[in-house]
Amino acid sequence: MKFNALIPELGVRDLAASLDFYVGLIGFSVAYDRPEEGFAFLELGAAQLMLDTIGMGRSFGEAASTPLGGGINFQLEVDDLDGIVSRLAAADWPVVLGPEERRYRTPDGERGQRQLWVRDPDGYLLRPFQPI
Fold it and tell me: Pick from 8, 38, 62, 71: most CB atoms within 10 A?
């Protein structure tokens, strides 16, 4: 298994609820886990994400207030944005914004993408996108 140079590890309150969101709705898979520590390592394409239950295993003083996500958002490239949109709708999961099409200026010119903004159970903001 190859590990990315930067892998976010999110402190979560309820690992099962987070897995329902990230695996069931967004489409990640569990590469491995350590249930006794409340930990799961997830993958979706080239993206990697770790979930760590606050108060189990090693915690580093994460705040218990809502939401945990604060001002961070994670952009996630996906192959099937429509599938995510459908699963979120079927679960009646609230979407913050979108889906929408946006164009962003980059050093290589404009980049177009379809995207939506959605919060996970702990308030972390996720922006799945598909290039257009």
Answer: 38
